[in-house]
Amino acid sequence: FLKYNFDVTKGKIFIEWMKGATTNICYNLLDRNVNEKKLGDKVAFYWEGNEPGDSTKITYRELLHKVCQFANVLRSQGVKKGDRVSIYLPMILELVVAMLACARIGALHSVVFAGFSADSLCERILDCGCSLLITAAPAFYRGSSLKKCIVVKHLGREEIAVDGTCSKSPPLKRLCQEVQGSLQEGCKRKLLTPWNPAMDTWWHELTRGASTECEPEWCDAEDELFILYTSGSTGKPKGVLHTVGGYMIFAATSFKYVFDYQPEDVYWCTADIGWITGHSYLTYGPLANGATSVLFEGVPTYPDVSRMWSIIDKYKVTKFYTAPTAIRLLMKYGEEPVKKHSRKSLKVLGTVGEPINPEAWLWYYRVVGEERCPIVDTFWQTETGGHMLTPLPAATPMKPGSATFPFFGVVPAILSESGEELEGEAEGYLVFKQPWPGIMRTLYGKHQQFETIYFKKFPGYYVTGDGCRRDKDGYYWITGRIDDMLNVSGHLLSTAEVESALVEHAAVAEAAVVSHPHPLKGECLYCFVTLREGHEFTKNLTDELKKQGIREKIGPIATPDYIQHAPSLPKTRSGKITRRILRKIAKNDQDLGDISTLADPGIIKHLFNGRCDTNQ
């Protein structure tokens, strides 16, 4: 049933869960819901485009038919079990169809966030050797359907750089040459990459007439399901590999219990499917439970800042799952945009992606949920496949900012620097003592790196790379990445705690804290703050932040040596602050490494120009 080794000193790291059992995840998500549970006419997804009024829906039966059609297309194009398929699409229903079609025939999908550059896409394609790319036009056209702009590209028929440098023209998103004559002459634009009929085919042409029946490929529980790339500390993305059986069970079970799923629910996870949250809690987890979900392609502030709350009312969303970054963004606009919509359907609120500061948690609870909706503040990783630390709605007493307790079957521990397990109240390295079904099995093609990153530092444990504090009541508090921990005069400080103290000030919208070398303390605090509209960055303000914001809330040991004004902070396209780059800026180190994943690389120059003088 379960075999594993977490100790590098005893041999190769491996995890096997129900090896030898056979299943197909697409069959469980669609066929069983349609044929056994009689949910064929139930809505699987309400799709909402960026433009209000641009919407559609798809039932479980319709989704099954479309998935079978495209699975037959993939087979006709030579894709077979074990092949890798790269998917580079916006948040449209065809993205879900493509993923499940791959799963149905035993091929691995590698979804790449559509906001990444062509070079980033190329790097991922080369790393896992994808044979096919499914992509789309990067623009919308009046009078045309986006699905008519989807391209299926045979990568094996294209010359790609073999030295890993992506020096030759990589596969790019392309504009449509024509969309069944629906484009007006003035809308036609030149292709970014020349159309090649030997390798490029239109989705709508391939699926036209394809059968809506497709026998699933039966897979071993330990067969590979998908590869998803996540950031590495070296700047090189890592291909996290998940397998069929364990991932399916963990995504399905955690979705059911963490969100207290009920058959009448309408669930909305705002994550992009290009990230693990979109895989586990927008695609696989909800569909495994026969849930109805909202799939939103737009941005939360268009056409106005109340867009998210209007969508909640439109679809009567009961369970809502979003990121602290989005909450803090909408907090800036006050309560009025929220309160102009009823939100009466809401029953459970969730957060994901990073620790949420208590101020944002309280605003989410009081303003959005009107103090009647429990908040599930979830901690997990791309590597874990699903929730690791999380409250259960109405069952776990909440503490603002705490991920509370482990999910079923998860055994956490807190270790000291020397690897000693700490009992009771403690702070240190968060690790897990035994495997759970959804744990990653390796880094694709890099098993030695997998062992080094996750198991070498503390043999016998899975190392999350996160710091954690356990309070006297046994609640777990994520304190930030270990490389974001600050050791000031022998005292371990968390960036999250200092940042939370800074944003409590009325003038501060967002803050990020990194370490800076100090001749006496070893490290000192270097803070970046983004101000709310109407506030000015002055010496008086920095003095207030140091005294009232830090000294009084945490203690003198946490007083920052430097506070820099930041017009905005460098973030990935998923909204995470890139502290690796902020540390470089604080040290005036121009060697930034890979910055291709930044949403706005232009902010770096402004931050370097505004550096504090650290030579005084």
What is CATH's topology name of the domain at 59-217? Rossmann fold
In the CATH classification, which architecture of the domain at 59-217 applies?
Answer: 3-Layer(aba) Sandwich
Let me know the CATH homologous superfamily of the domain at 59-217: ANL, N-terminal domain
Contiguous uncertain segments of 5+ residues: 139-148, 159-191
Question: What helical percentage do the residues reach?
Answer: 25-40%
Question: How many runs of DSSP E, i.e. beta strands?
Answer: 28
The level-1 CATH class of the domain at 59-217? Alpha Beta
- Coarse shape: globular
Count of DSSP H/I helices:
16
- Radius of gyration in whole Å, from Cα? 24 Å
Strand content: 15-25%
Order of neighbouring strands in the sheet with most strands: 5-4-15-14-16-17-18
Mean pLDDT: 88
* Structural class assignment: alpha/beta
Biggest β-sheet description: 7 strands, mixed
Which quaternary structure do these chains form?
single chain
Gap from first CA to last CA: 62 Å
Summarize the structure.
With 616 residues, this protein is an alpha/beta fold. The chain is built from 16 helices and 28 strands.
What does this structure look like?
- This protein is an alpha/beta fold.
- Among the domains are: 59-217, ANL, N-terminal domain (Rossmann fold); 485-609, GMP Synthetase, Chain A, domain 3 (2-Layer Sandwich).
- The protein is 26% helix and 22% strand.
- The strands form 8 sheets. It has a 7-stranded mixed β-sheet, with helices on both faces. Strands 7-6-8-9-10 form a 5-stranded mixed β-sheet, sandwiched between helices. Strands 19-20-22-23 form a 4-stranded antiparallel β-sheet.
- A hairpin with a 3-residue loop joins strand 26 and strand 27 (522-531).
- The longest helix has 17 residues, at 60-76.
